[in-house]
Amino acid sequence: MSILAVDRKEQANVGGLLSRRYGQMLRGGKYTDCVFHVCNEQVKCHKLILSAASPVFEAMFFGPLQSNEPEPEIEIHDISEAIFKILVDYIYTGVVDYNGQELVACIELYYAAEKYFLEELISDTLIAITRKLRFANIMPALELSVCMGLDGLLDVCMTFFMRCCVNNGQFKNHLKENYVHVSKECVKAIIAACKEPHKLLIWYVYEWTQQECEELGLGPSDADLVVHGLGGGSSDWHVASGVNELESPAPAPVVSVERCYYKACRPFTVDAETPVFRLRLKCSRFISLMGLVLNSRMTPNRMGHVQQLEYRESLRLDICEVPAESESPATAPVWSHDVQGQSTKYNCDLHLNWRREEACVLNPELSYELQIRWDTSAYGAEYPCSLQSCQADGIRFTDGDSFSGSLVKGLRYANLV
């Protein structure tokens, strides 16, 4: 081990030791010299430690406006007791358990970090928020970011919305069943980010207008009054004045992942009894599925015929949602793609790709079943299969129970968050 590596290890050990000692001082209440009153609770701290972490605390305790009291008492009205304690604990120890926090708590912690200029905590909370965004909470998160003027949070939420939601039929179905009404400013911000009339946005603005009219006691004929100033005219999608233009997020890069090969097993034969191959997928994050890598057909053994090097592959891909009960059958397809007459070499990799606009967004809260279907013209075709790893890059593969092995070698996708 190099001298530099040893020095870094020793520095890390010293940093961890100091964090533990500071944490013990905080929990033990030793030598405290300031008190915060938060929601009828008292939080006792050390001015020097707080000031070393935050320029706001430094100005409060040692700046021109410092209190002359030996143990100043400060009232906190805009942060909850639980979040303020997490904030203080982070200053003393440098650690936050984000796994135990809901999205709303992370957003409030982000607000507190912004208030006290804690740059590292701001970055960490935005990463935690990104990982916790889902279809069910993105609209409330956008509303909070707009209403509270939190630009960093708005950027994170809008990037998620543009990548995972705006062109996603699954999100539209979710929103139809679980409509969320937001403020006019929030709708304006969404229109400003979209810059073009997506079908989802047109539908949502219509639903939002109906709900807004109802809440204001207006009739359908007054809808023009409600939508005035939203932006997005019929002839173009110009952003209304007064709304800050947001840059559309750059498309996420496309990556590929392959499963680890273990050993070969008997091939999969397409016939009347098995015209469909099934594979279940579960992701740890939102991804946009843009391609598959399969094993192509084995060269047919035709006595007396010249062996062909290529064939024309035709099949249909369906992706279905799987209910929470793993034994339940998959639902109707939420996405489909047809492959017609793709020139393919025997005994090679079969790459199936489609455009970004045609991609299927996979939600980490759901499990999916990939179904590969062939018509009667493919009966008798054999596809080599193998035992492969069930986990790759945070994506779990579960091959069908009725068949040993898999003909799916990997995926092509873009990480959306």
Please specify the SSE layout and strand pairing.
Layout: H1 3-28, E1 34-38, E2 41-45, H2 47-53, H3 55-62, E3 73-76, H4 81-93, H5 103-115, H6 119-132, H7 138-147, H8 151-165, H9 169-177, H10 184-194, H11 199-216, H12 223-227, E4 254-258, E5 261-269, E6 276-283, E7 287-295, E8 310-322, E9 333-345, E10 349-353, E11 360-362, E12 367-373, E13 382-388, E14 391-392, E15 395-399, E16 408-415
Parallel strand pairs: 1-3
Antiparallel strand pairs: 1-2, 4-16, 5-13, 6-12, 6-15, 7-10, 7-11, 7-16, 8-9, 8-12, 14-15
Overall mean pLDDT: 86
Order of helices and strands: HEEHHEHHHHHHHHHEEEEEEEEEEEEE
Quaternary assembly: single chain
| Molecular shape | elongated
State the CATH superfamily name of the largest domain. Answer: PHR domain
Structure, explained:
The chain is of the alpha+beta class and 417 residues long. It is 36% helix and 26% strand. It contains 12 helices and 16 strands. It has helices spanning 3-28, 47-53, 55-62, 81-93, 103-115, 119-132, 138-147, 151-165, 169-177, 184-194, 199-216, 223-227; strands spanning 34-38, 41-45, 73-76, 254-258, 261-269, 276-283, 287-295, 310-322, 333-345, 349-353, 360-362, 367-373, 382-388, 391-392, 395-399, 408-415. The chain has a 6-stranded antiparallel sheet, with no helix packed on it.
Short description:
The chain has helices at 3-28, 47-53, 55-62, 81-93, 103-115, 119-132, 138-147, 151-165, 169-177, 184-194, 199-216, 223-227; strands at 34-38, 41-45, 73-76, 254-258, 261-269, 276-283, 287-295, 310-322, 333-345, 349-353, 360-362, 367-373, 382-388, 391-392, 395-399, 408-415.
